[in-house]
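User: Need the bound-state model for adenosine monophosphate:
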Amino acid sequence: MTKIVRSVAELRALVRGWKAAGDVVGVVPTMGALHDGHLSLARAAKADCARVIVTIFVNPKQFNNPDDLLKYPRTETADAALLQAEGVDVIFAPMPDEVYPAGFATTVSVAGVAQPLEGALRPGHFDGVATVVAKLFGMTLADRGYFGQKDWQQLQVVQRLVRDLNIPVDVVGCETVREADGLAMSSRNARLDAGARAKAPALYAAMRRAALALRAGRGDALDACRTEVLAAGFDSVEYIELRDAATLDVAATLDQPLRLLAAAWLGGVRLIDNIPV
Ligand code: AMP
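Assistant: Bound-state model below.
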């Protein structure tokens, strides 16, 4: 039976019991409104760890846009049923004041990898992410943390964070889960109307063509990709960029692990995606 826990004290008591029995503990941080992408992380955690905690917390500190926070879907009852079916041990779903009690004054800020792309376009976003992930690791006492490649830059930020602060958590990055038409699953997809939903797969399709063109040495591949996405009916493209996969620095050559990353607006929803090149 999956237990829903709201307080850090209760969570810690449970985890201490598990650890005393020698169990490896995995944590999957989420903001809820769960889909198959999230569930794939829970399954990966179940495969590796004797005990699995899924956290559900819509973290106000990582929303740079108040409207986005307000509109973020909240579906805890349905989420709990999905996690129960996956055999997750605990859902940790704290209230905001359990995570950020009165007097809370610390921000974890990662430089370098957190600065370009999402970091530049969503000021404060990665400070919010790094702060809450550091706290969730401290609260859950987990041995392993599972994150999606869907949020590639976030995954690199979390890797940097655990290395820099000697946080004893193994970070595992799991493949992006997509709809049958290629659209990367996202809780925000629920906000696309039927017309926008039909156009949405064009982003991934254009990115795949661009990745091939880049490998073939085509200098205009990124511009062509942007044009294609706009022609497919997207309202605007924030970025389509080729970057070093680990540092997110501008890629100097093609002989390093590279990632093509994009953010674009469609029907009032901001979609992001990334693929290897
Ligand atoms: P979120 O609830 O959006 O904060 O996401 C929680 C975790 O699920 C993050 O590590 C995301 O990268 C991951 N995630 C979200 N969408 C997907 C997806 N389509 N495939 C794999 N992982 C995902």
